[in-house]
Amino acid sequence: MIKNVDPRTKLASVICISTLAIIFQNPLILMAVLFAGVFLAKIFGANLLMLIKRIRHILFLFIVIIFIQSLFVKTGTVLIGFENIRILTSEGLIRGIGYLMRILIILISGAILSTCDMRKLIQGLIQMKLPYDIAFMTSLGIKFLPLFVEEIKDTMIAIQLRGIDINQLSLRERLEIVSYLFTPIIAGTLNKSKKLSLSVECRGFRAYDRRTSITKLKMSFTDYLMISSSLLFSVGLIMIDKILV
Amino acid sequence: MNGFIVVETMYLSLNHIPILKNINLSLDRHQFVSVVGPNGSGKTTLGKAITGIIKHNQGHIYLNDKNISLLSLAEIGRTIGYLFQNPEKQIFAPKVIEELSFALKYKKVDQKIIEEKTIEMLHLFDLYHLKDATTFFLSQGEKQRLAIASVLLNEPEYLILDEPTTGLDIKRRKELSQLIDKLKTKTGILSISHDKEFINRHSERIITMKDGCIIDDKKC
User: Fold this and answer.
1) CA nearest A18: which of A109, A91, A101?
2) What local confidence, expressed as pLDDT, does residue B1 receive?
3) Would the CB atoms of A164 and B51 count as touching at under 8 Å?
4) What is the tens place of the pLDDT at every residue in B71-96?
5) To the nearest whole percent, how much of chain B has pLDDT over 90?
6) Which residues of B touch A188 (CB under 8 A)?
7) Residue B106 and residue A164: Cβ atoms within 8 Å?
8) Sorting pLDDT into bands at 50, 70 and 90, what band is A176?
9) Quick one: DSSP state of residue B134?
């Protein structure tokens, strides 16, 4: 694990692997990108076990989407079918696997970014000449995400404490319950945003055009090396893909 | 220990920080108990542990002789009514009337009975004029009254009230006190509060907490 990596380095690596995940179709190349993502996550100290734990409940959803996606591809050798009806083809399966790889790469990218200190990440964006207002909004957006999760958890607890066993409800009633989750989230977000905007205005936000910052990021040799490696890896894979095509 | 709620040598830690230490407690069904203590002494956590919102690490909590670790939140919620410190945490329906009728609707109670009970609560908590209002636009005091009314509509056998008088004006505090006088005869109440007047008026027993421990437990 490499410590004290500049957030801009992590951002550059994430941009590389997520862009590659979108442009490639070949599952073998996508697998190489996935391995690169896992390697990067490891050296940046991302907790992949935690990621697996978090997504285990929705894994079945990915598998269903992959299966549905593969059903609509009719080219390739028939793997499952009845007489003239093609249910699953080799091409469909390959596309489905490719889709799964892309999802995993995007999730790993998120795990890499989650290792960044958010304040430093925003400072990185500012030093990359991103306007402060937009950088500040990004940081707020990131801070609001765990609040949404908290709000959903609280609402589910409040619903169950009224004696409602969600597992015993019909599908229609469960969907109705889901609709109840939105009110506290929307109301809570609006309320918090309003209070927050008042608070920052009171503290003189945007009072002056120029801002100074106590935090200054500085790239080290390792950072430059990692950014160049990521770029070289990306260019290399693009060339291999072109040769394979 | 005998009691409607029994807590035996309970320990609770959050993020490896001990919050509650060696809690032993027995709560009766027809008693008003106040939990007092400074901020961060573990009062709210104790209430949440008894309700099963936060899981304890060691020891046992029994509700009506049943270990709460074996009960779902819904099963606990049918017996215990819990009022959150912040009413916004428990209001989830877009309209006041919907918030009140929510639990009864999903318990398949007859629509006529739901209407009768809801209107009774609306009058009792001076919320009738707000019955079609959006919960989001209510004031803090109105939200608090709505949260209490929603909990009571569930007809719990035991009530845990976390800071019930917060956000209420003098008139509403008096009305809440009158309502608690009526409730005390049929429901046990555990109140977590800093409101001395409220505590002195209702408490039959006062539990004092400090640094996650019960340091005093006296009958009034």
Assistant:
1) A109
2) 65
3) no
4) 999 999 999 999 998 888 889 898 99
5) 69
6) 88
7) yes
8) confident
9) B
User: Is A105 in contact with A37 (CB distance < 8 Å)?
Assistant: yes
Give B103's contacts in chain A (Cβ within 8 Å): 162-164
Query: Given an 8 Å threshold on Cβ–Cβ distance, is A164 in contact with B150?
Result: no
CA distance B74 to chain A (A): 4
pLDDT tens-digit series, residues B164-193: 998 888 888 888 888 888 888 888 999 999
Structural domain boundaries in chain A: 1-116+216-245, 132-214
B142 chain-A contacts, CB cut-off 8 A:
none
Q: Which CATH architecture has domain B5-219?
A: 3-Layer(aba) Sandwich (3.40)
> Looking at chain B, which residue has its C-alpha nearest residue A164?
B74
> Chain B residue with minimal CA distance to A191?
B136
Domain ranges of chain B: 5-219
A164 contacts in B (CB within 8 Å)?
74, 77, 103, 106-107
ipTM of predicted assembly, 2 dp: 0.88
Long-range (24+ apart) CB contacts under 8 A made by B100-108 are B100/B146, B100/B149, B100/B150, B100/B153, B101/B153, B102/A159, B102/A162, B102/A180, B102/B150, B103/A162, B103/A163, B103/A164, B103/B150, B103/B153, B103/B154, B104/B153, B106/A162, B106/A164, B106/A169, B106/A173, B107/A163, B107/A164
Residues of A in contact with B80 (CB under 8 A): 161
| pLDDT (tens digit per residue) in B48-74 | 999 999 999 999 999 999 999 999 999
What does residue B107 show for φ and ψ, rounded to 5 degrees? -90, 10
Facing residue for B92 by CB, picked from A155, A165, A166: A155
Q: Tell me the nearest-neighbour CA distance from B41 into chain A, angstroms.
A: 22
**Partner-chain contact A166 B93, CB within 8 Å:** no
Residue B213's φ and ψ, nearest 5 degrees, are -120, 155
> How far apart (Å, rounded) are the C-alpha atoms in residues B33 and B170?
22
Task: Give the side-chain half-sphere CA count within 13 A for B189.
Answer: 28
Which contiguous run of DSSP H or E holds residue B23?
strand B17-27
